[in-house]
């Protein structure tokens, strides 16, 4: 990081300090503290062994442009450190750059929380995996997920040494315990249940490559979707997943393969705790396998989390069927789709059918401490020019919201007001999806019994395509 950025930060601190009209203004004070911390981090960068993402040589630009091409995910924002060096791209204004450097929220010191909950989000790794650390710091995250390579391509260049070095030095500098609180997400292309030899090998190779990337980065947990039967029998497909895992475990040494629970029905594997149990049962080295619970997926798959009683019931179901020791991580998402609808539609925290009470249950459950909890909630907003922009402040705020639930009295006015506000915010979206789900079940019922269900006709007649 070049010195000019540090002088920009110093100026920002001076400006912010100057704008503090009342010295007792806590917000402004903490803003200054934030900036000071950021400046310290930036100066650390200059001294530290961090890949110089702002190198100005042509060849470096070309190399980095290639890397971004290859590693870019759906998230187009490169984050606060990596400037996107694509040729012809408009440079960021000084104001934009300063905004990028200012943390949207300060990371919470875990010891200040009543429970050690490590909450973060799935951040961008565009431009190299090392960028994910700064992107996590930017939103005040204490845990994070990332893609280790393009999740939509089969062939990817090997991980660059500068990205490995940068990842390690930045995680050290920002005191991230990446072996515990970083949870990479596997490629959407990989289906370990694949039966066709050639496709199965391709899936395995990509999977193994990711596991090796984890080990080179010092990451211990690796999350992936179990797979799809493609119409084959479930036991056969599950057998193939376990066989691939056994092979991958032998080819690596430390990384834990973490199965994610799913929302869907039919050919999807992992929507029931029984599926997860059956895979684990066939894994030889049980110390190398775990489970990540996505709250939205669980709810859509028929595992309720809303009331304290329902939450306890779901937790004990998991513990009895799968086993508490296999639980390693969480994806923290609300659901735009209603209970047991088997639709995977993530909503912002508190705005969906799960609601704030469900997250209060999760955040106050002692056994979930020290596990990475990763938001995958929507952050796209329409900008003033009508273009879709990512508003990372949403994640920064959701992290603080979740942390605030720890120890909060759910009967308090504070909780009730929060709950009400968020539910109002999500009302129209919930209504929309509820309507789609109702229409679909009406249609399915009609299909199942076309003659007896004549009265369903009215509901089904104005069916729209989903
Ligand atoms: Zn996932
Ligand atoms: Zn999902």
UniProtKB/TrEMBL annotation:
GO molecular function, one term: zinc ion binding
Chain intervals for the UniProt region annotation (Disordered): 1-97, 420-466
Keyword match DNA repair: yes
Organism (species): Daldinia eschscholtzii
Family: Belongs to the AP endonuclease 2 family.
Gene Ontology CC entries for this record: mitochondrion; nucleus
Gene Ontology biological process terms, A to Z: base-excision repair
A Pfam family annotated for this UniProt entry: AP_endonuc_2
Bias type Basic residues, positions: 448-458
Assigned keywords, A-Z: DNA damage, DNA repair, Hydrolase, Metal-binding, Zinc
Xref: InterPro entries: AP_endonuc_2, AP_endonuc_F2_Zn_BS, Xyl_isomerase-like_sf, Xyl_isomerase-like_TIM-brl
Domain (Xylose isomerase-like TIM barrel): residue spans on this chain: 135-404
Entries under NCBIfam families matching the protein: nfo, PRK01060.1-4
Biased composition (Polar residues): 18-31
Domain of life: Eukaryota
Cofactor section: Zn(2+)
Name of the protein: Apurinic-apyrimidinic endonuclease 1
Acidic residues bias locations: 68-77
UniProt keyword annotation of DNA repair present: yes
Skewed-composition ranges (Basic and acidic residues): 37-48, 420-447
